[in-house]
Specification:
68% helix
Length: 151
């Protein structure tokens, strides 16, 4: 069947953005003039299929990529520390609750002191983690990247 190859599949917005990123890299590397870049970006935005996208990037080397995003921008591992701290503190709070119950039944001053210390420690860590998260969001609300322009 003619017209059913992979080039006839519809391109997504992300596919068009990747093609435009490759065109921008080619422009920065001096492979395209400003006029060529503008015309090809227009062609990429109007592309409906992979074949249409291939036309605007056909004479460029395969695999042109720009600067890679910072790890924080990709999967936000900077927040992983805060999340794992919160999970650990919640687990510690459950242990402290168990100690409070055990201390109540055993009428043991040592268990009360341990439960109190664990509760205060977890609360302090949660407050600190929350302050760090709020401070980082306040300083760099967009992860240090400019917002994307709407098209």
């Amino acid at each position: 069947m003619a017209g059913t190859g992979p080039g006839r599949l519809r391109a997504s917005h992300a596919d068009r953005e990747r093609a435009i990123d490759a065109l921008k890299v080619a422009f920065v590397q001096g492979r395209l003039t400003k006029g060529e870049l503008d015309a090809r970006v227009g062609g990429a935005l109007a592309s409906r299929t992979y074949a249409d996208l291939a036309v605007v990037t056909a004479d460029l080397p395969a695999g042109l990529t720009g600067p890679q995003p910072m790890p924080e921008a990709v999967g936000a591992p900077g927040n992983v520390g805060v999340k794992s701290t919160v999970v650990a503190c919640l687990a510690g709070t459950l242990v402290a609750a168990g100690l409070w119950v055990a201390a109540g039944f055993a009428d043991n001053g040592g268990l009360f002191a341990l439960a109190f210390s664990l509760t205060v420690g977890c609360l302090g860590i949660l407050i600190t983690a929350g302050a760090v998260a709020l401070r980082s969001r306040h300083q760099e609300p967009s992860g240090g990247r400019l917002p994307r322009a709407r098209r």
